[in-house]
Amino acid sequence: MADEARRIDAGTLLAEIATKSGRPAEDVRAALTRHGVFFRPSLAVPKRLCIRSLRFTGIKQGEKAAGPIDFTWNDLGPGLWAITSGRNLRGKSTVLGIIRWCLNGRRGDAVPGEMKEWFHTVELGFTLDDQGYEVEIADAIAGTGTLWRVDGSTKRSLASFASEDEFESTMSDFFMGQLGLQLIVSHAVQGDRSIDQPHDWVWLSGALVIEPNPTVLFGAVATGGLATRMMQMYLGVPWTSANNDIVAAQGRLQNEARQTTAAFDRTRERRQARIKELDAEITDLQSRLKALPLEDDQRAELRRESAKFAEAEKRRRSALMLLASIEADLESAKDAHARARRDLQDFKDSRAANYVFRSLEPVCCPRCDEVFDEVRRAETRNDHICLVCGTPEEPEADPGTLEESLKEAVADAELELARQRQRHEALTKTIADAGDAMDDAEAACRVIQARLAAPSGRRDVEIDILRKQAQREELAKEDAAAPSPNGDLGVLKAAEEVTKEAYRPLQDDLLSEVSGLIQDYAVRFGVESLESVKLLGNTNLRLHKGGPPVYFGKQTAGERVRLKVAATLAIMKVAQTRGLGRHPGLLLIDSPGANEMVPQDFDRLISGLAELSGEIPHLQVLVAAVNSETIQNHVPPERRRSAAGDEYLW
Amino acid sequence: MSQIDYRRNALRILFILVKGSRPAPGEAVDGFDYVFRGETKVQALDFWVRYPDYLADELISLYERTGLVEHLTAAEQIFANEEPDLRRVPMLRLYFGAYEPLDTVLGYLKSRGLILPRSRPMETGKDEHDFLVSEKARELIRQMVSKVQELAWYDQRVDLVLKVADGRGGYALKKRQHEQKEYHDAAHGDLIPTTAERVRRRLADLLGRGG
């Protein structure tokens, strides 16, 4: 299986990611690089760390046992070593703490704060495989010192540090490089901030420590899948670093997307209100525009009015032409009417005159003035002839008939006159109306022409509408363009799947093997009635103890210590047999007896460790514990630093 | 009525002669106790009776000269009654102006014992014609006006004309009538034209009305 895993190289993985994400290989490479994901074939050959010597000096302060410190422990090597005292609080944990301080450059909790000023110099000699090194803290208070490479009697400085921070980074760089470990970046979201948390050697070196009351199986921190990462790294599962980077990058992108979406949602409401507002404004402007006259319409109207003018003028002209003849007709009718009435008047006058003169008999001849005598009167009367001229009298025509006909003539003339007046009035009205129509049309033309000459305001409104429509369109586009997930997410997702596929079979295989060993070791360490153990990919440990499965976290502190030691050793063992893992083979076990572990169980742990030290040749285990028979039985005196009774170790 | 209606003319002349006459001085001739002097004056007065438009014009001039509104009212009345159309009896323009031979008319009047024409030799060598008016004529007019409605107009009109003439003699009146352009310019032998439209305008202008 290991061979199979090795056969998969970075190029193959990239090609598979490209296929899965449907993106060109160069895009995939660029996307991964952009997000700090690198596929490095980091299957470093495991190196073995072994503490060789420890010396520290200083002045112990306080009321009890104050005085100079000068602790030296030489000739350490692989196998089980014990630091014991007759009583607790005699400096055992501090010795382990100082070792951890030297190894990771951070003083930490292992060296209590009140002792900060006590230590002046510290020197830790260790080997990685066969190469000797020495950490020399020249001024423990200031944190200055040197990391030496030791070849026989020659020491060469690898790095110097002038502060605690520099010391930490010096040691981190050294061990990460030497052990082929990779920085693990986890991604976390705090509030709405995306935070990348790098985890280096200080964290990874947690795997070297078994604390008295462990809560996690690997390392000291239980959050964010870090235990899994630590396990994978020490197991030597390939591509897990890349996988870790991929997961972190996805977290970053998802958080970014979340924030962008949140920001987008915050502005959406404002944007939509503005869109609504713009819609209303546009509608308003459009109705205003509709109300404004179109130039073409106005020109058409002008033409219509001009035509009206021309038509009215024509009407007026022809009426005027007709006027003369109608006036003539009217005059004739007036004349005829006057004549008829005059005739009637004449008739009446004449009748009156007749009446007057008929009543007067002539008395004499108008010519010769001869007065007519009575005889002549009688004769002419009898003869019905005129007294004057002898003309026979004619019977009087009936004046009534004549008057009637004259009256009829007057009535006819009146009718005709009325008719002609009507005609004349109608024509006059036509002329006046046509004149009015001409005036109206002319006025209308003037108004339209003035309107045409003046700026219509249409253009301004049109421009306003266009501008608002553009604004609206822009906003709608913005609104429609909800932030799309970063395209790289697809690549990262594909990368995660491909990478998991690449390491999962090997990891499953390794976990299965480790699980078997854990069970073996745990039993040897005295965990009773353990039927089976399964180490899960998430570092949880599932136990069967004759009933439903139980988990690591629910075990007693003593069992947790033993299970944790078993698991760590199992990983080291598998690493050793497979030549894969990177655990350096050093284990610092602090005061296992301080918890609730019964002496029998403690005995089983120590004896088991002694036994296993033989099975895993490079394993170095330093146990800090209260002095006991168990220790004395399983750890030879030369492998012990002990303080008897009330004595202090240093 | 193209035929000359002598009786009507006679009646009109009778009114003029009766109303324009004054008691005859000196010895009266058989019941003819009044006298109207001068045929020219008869013609001149007759012209104003026959042409109400000319009369109205004269009335307007009188109004303008005297400021007496009654003249203006009388002129207005003439037009209101359409007299220039209805009452006009056209006259000929002869040598000295409007003239119509009175022989026939006078025959009517004389034969009825109403008027007695008399000639009176003048210093100029020409005869002046006077008209004696009988009491019978005056009585006849009085009776007829009350009997026959149509005659009231003649009665009043002749009064008005006499008032306008204001005792002027025939020549003075003729002279006055010649001052009317239309009258004066009428060709010899033509009917004297009407001035109705001009006078109507003149009247309207005075009354402050258009046209």
Strand order of the largest sheet of chain A: 2-1-4-5-6-7
**Order of the strands making up the biggest sheet of chain B:** 1-2-6-5
Element-by-element helix/strand order of chain B: HEEHHHHEEHEEHHHHH
CATH homologous superfamily placement of the domain at 295-455 in chain A: Helix Hairpins
What portion of residues of chain A is helical? 55-70%
Q: Identify the CATH class of the domain at 295-455 in chain A.
A: Mainly Alpha
Rounded mean pLDDT of chain A is 86
Strand content of chain A: 15-25%
- The domain count of chain B comes to 1
| Radius of gyration based on Cα positions of chain A | 65 Å
**What is the rounded distance between the termini of chain B?**
32 Å
Query: What percent of the residues of chain B sit in helical stretches (DSSP H or I)?
Result: 55-70%
Q: What is the strand content of chain B?
A: 5-15%
- How would a crystallographer describe the biggest sheet of chain B? 4 strands, antiparallel
Number of helices of chain A: 16
Coiled coil (chain A): 268-350, 403-430
Organism (chain A): Microvirga thermotolerans
Keywords (chain A): Coiled coil
Protein name (chain A): Large ATP-binding protein
